[in-house]
């Protein structure tokens, strides 16, 4: 494709995306295709001869679009938001257009140095401690996902807990990590990848009401494991759990970690970015004093297209010692001088995209006040919704719900818990199949609840109001006798 052809098709693509954004409400939120339908509509073999780009766009419209769930739809309330925004898309396009590979400082100094500046900016926007900044002992790095961030944190923690032996001998001791029943599954995956096995994962009880990790049980478990010969390596505290946005008590957990010399990773994938607003800075309680690593996802709720997780460390030395390997073909004078950052040593893969461009574009386009306004809008819409649900005697709301997530369920009087759960799931399926909104569910104390996560930049008051009307209407219309 010549630069002139690129210009022409690039304009078509930008127009296509702008039209998609403008018309997104015309699509059902959740895709309605069945398994295999998209695959069957595509040729089984690749073309022998090149095709015009228009043919790609035509297939996008006719074949792929029906198979998409529209995550940027203003009535998408499932999982957690996965914000996209104009400046982030353009930043990503520039990154693709440049096609640089930022594995080492020397392979594109601007790619590395912009990233350093942008993660330091974000640390300051979120009110994170000064020692997380790259000009101190710590530093931040952009990872593809929170899952990668926790794996990297675990490898650094194992390095420190073993005095560096893990790199030479592998997992020769019984290392343990501590999570709660509410911790994201990526921690279990990280433990598997690191070779700890199922016995290396210790699940700490949570408070029945808040679903936050119980620090007293954590202390008991660590002491018992240590007495039994295990080496407690890392605790993962979550600020904003995946299920209900519960917040673990980081200061109390941090005290336990300090007593036992255990690495504390704070996973704030969803909720951490809310700290751009001073009124949510309490989400950072204990981070400055106790966290060895901390991560949050601008790709969830901070207007930055997937993928963009930022991981900070209080002390980069164990991280770099754990992950740095220097083959001859990567040696260069800048790296040898020790005066530059080589982000390949801060992550699992060698290669890396220029992700800082999209985060930089977002922060510059919105400014701190625009980012705060976005978070405040999501929280305020969610709080309005929670108040409406709480005021309806046919529903109950799970407390607390301080951010953009509201968990609730219909009461279903007269139904057994199992029948009520089946009815709640059926209500959700009816709503999702209708295409006007998209909700997901979880369980709290063994009971099914619906989750409504508000936080898309396109969501306005009318979308939340409409969703609540739809929920009430379908709830009343559901033929529950057939469920019982
Ligand atoms: N941690 C928490 C608390 C999450 O809610 C999620 C995803 O929802 C993750 C980790 C995983 O995020 P990612 O998809 O970036 O790996």
From TrEMBL:
Keywords noted in UniProt: Aminotransferase, Decarboxylase, Lyase, Pyridoxal phosphate, Transferase
UniProt organism field: Nonomuraea spiralis
- Name of the protein in its database record: Aminotransferase class I/II-fold pyridoxal phosphate-dependent enzyme
Family note: Belongs to the group II decarboxylase family.
Pfam family name, one: Pyridoxal_deC
Q: Which GO terms describe its molecular function?
A: transaminase activity
The record's PANTHER family line, in alphabetical order, gives: GROUP II PYRIDOXAL-5-PHOSPHATE DECARBOXYLASE (PTHR11999), MIP05841P (PTHR11999:SF70)
| UniProt xrefs under Gene3D superfamilies | Aspartate Aminotransferase, domain 1 (3.90.1150.10), dopa decarboxylase, N-terminal domain (1.20.1340.10), Type I PLP-dependent aspartate aminotransferase-like (Major domain) (3.40.640.10)
- Give the source's domain of life in one word: Bacteria
- Cofactor or coenzyme needed: pyridoxal 5'-phosphate
């Amino acid at each position: 494709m010549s630069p002139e052809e690129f210009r022409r098709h690039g304009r078509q693509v930008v127009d296509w995306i702008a039209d998609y954004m403008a018309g997104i409400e015309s699509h059902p939120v959740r895709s309605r295709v069945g398994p295999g339908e998209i695959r069957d509509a595509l040729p089984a073999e690749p073309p022998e001869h090149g095709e015009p780009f228009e043919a790609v766009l035509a297939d996008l419209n006719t074949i792929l679009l029906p198979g998409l769930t529209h995550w940027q739809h203003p009535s998408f309330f499932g999982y957690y938001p996965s914000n996209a925004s104009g400046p982030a898309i353009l930043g990503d396009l520039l990154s693709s257009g440049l096609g640089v590979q930022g594995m080492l400082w020397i392979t594109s100094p601007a790619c590395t140095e912009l990233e350093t500046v942008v993660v330091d900016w974000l640390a300051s926007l979120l009110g994170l401690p000064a020692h997380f900044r790259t000009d101190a002992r710590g530093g931040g790095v952009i990872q593809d996902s929170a899952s990668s961030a926790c794996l990297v944190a675990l490898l650094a923690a194992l390095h420190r807990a073993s005095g560096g032996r893990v790199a030479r001998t592998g997992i020769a001791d019984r290392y343990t990590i501590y999570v709660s029943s509410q911790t994201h599954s990526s921690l279990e995956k990280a433990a598997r990848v690191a070779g700890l096995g199922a016995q290396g994962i210790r699940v700490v009880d949570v408070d029945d009401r808040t679903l936050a990790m119980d620090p007293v049980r954590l202390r008991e478990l660590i002491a018992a494991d240590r007495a039994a010969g295990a080496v407690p390596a890392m605790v993962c505290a979550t600020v904003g759990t995946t299920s209900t946005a519960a917040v673990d008590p980081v200061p109390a957990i941090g005290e336990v970690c300090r007593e036992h010399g255990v690495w504390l990773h704070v996973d704030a994938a969803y909720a951490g970015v809310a700290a751009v607003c001073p009124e949510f800075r309490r989400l950072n309680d204990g981070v400055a004093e106790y966290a060895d690593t901390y991560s949050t996802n601008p790709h969830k709720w901070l207007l930055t297209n997937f993928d963009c997780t930022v991981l900070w460390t209080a002390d980069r030395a164990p991280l770099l010692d754990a992950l740095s390997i220097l083959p001859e073909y990567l040696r260069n004078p800048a790296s040898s001088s020790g005066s530059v950052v080589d982000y390949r040593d801060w992550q699992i893969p060698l290669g890396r995209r220029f992700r800082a461009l999209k985060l930089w574009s977002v922060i510059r386009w919105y400014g701190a006040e625009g980012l705060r306004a976005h978070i405040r809008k999501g929280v305020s819409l969610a709080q309005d919704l929670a108040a409406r649900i709480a005021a309806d005697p046919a529903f109950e709301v799970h407390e607390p719900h301080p951010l953009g997530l509201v968990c609730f369920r219909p009461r279903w009087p007269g139904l057994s818990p199992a029948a009520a759960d089946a009815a709640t799931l059926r209500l959700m399926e009816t709503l999702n199949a209708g295409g006007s909104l998209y909700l997901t569910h979880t369980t709290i104390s063994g009971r099914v609840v619906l989750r409504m996560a508000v936080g898309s930049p396109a969501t306005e008051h009318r979308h939340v109001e409409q969703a609540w009307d739809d929920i009430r209407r379908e709830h009343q219309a559901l033929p529950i006798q057939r469920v019982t």
